[in-house]
Amino acid sequence: MIPISKHNQCPSSLQRLSSDKLFQLSAESQPANPDFFAVFAHQYGQAELSIALQHLNQLSSAARAALPLLIQADNEYNQAIITGIHHLISTVNADDKASLFLRLVKASQSGQFSSIATGQMTQSIQRLNQDGKLQGLNLRGMDFSQLDLSRLDLSFSHLSKAMLNQTNCQHTVLTRVNLIGAQLNGANLSHATLFRARLINAELNDADLSGTDLVDANLCGAILHRANLQDACLTGADMTITELCHANLHNANLSGVNLTEANLSNAIMTDAVLVGTEISGTLFRGAINLNMTGTNNKNEAILG
What we know:
Elements (H helix, E strand, L loop, with lengths): L10 H18 L7 H9 L1 H9 L6 H4 L2 H6 L5 H14 L2 H15 L6 H16 L174
């Protein structure tokens, strides 16, 4: 917690003073300079800086333009800035919240800031995650490629057409997430939760989905060439016309999965469970250690 100075006795008047000053500084800064937050803190105190940032979302669009600068600021008052960021991302409208979250993640992993500032930003993300503030975000079309989103709870979020190529999503909770048309090539989704996630037409080439929960997920038309699905649980998933060439399905649970017209050419099927799996028109050419015991319409599968 930031210590409240003795002259912080009248939050309403102090808030107006701080917000007005911050607005003035942000509007006058051309080109924008993150150091004006340090100047503000020196003039009005660290507690006032935190209050001003917390109420920035109530100001005009000109002041809201200072949001990227909050993240870029790297000075002794960084803790006050991060406190303000946490409040902002918790209260602003959905679109601003999503944009601010992306900027915060990128800034915390950019390597451009001091270890203290980076640590504070990381702590802010973790705090938001613990408070459930990262669920239901509208992240449609945003680029998270090569970033670390591991262990975050992004349940119910919209990530359609988002780019998550080579993104670290280990143990990430993506329950009922919309990933339609998203790019997750080379992504690490090991032990992630994708329960009832929509991955229609998504690209997951070379992705690591080992031990991942894909129960009742919709992967219709998704492309998973060379994907690692070892030990994954896909029970009840829709994998109609899904591309799984050279995929590793060793010990995967495919019970009740709809694989109609899917392509599993040269896939590794060792110890895969296919009880009640629909394989009408499914292509298994070159599949390794395929056992179709318990499957539906196995006579309609294509083996050669």
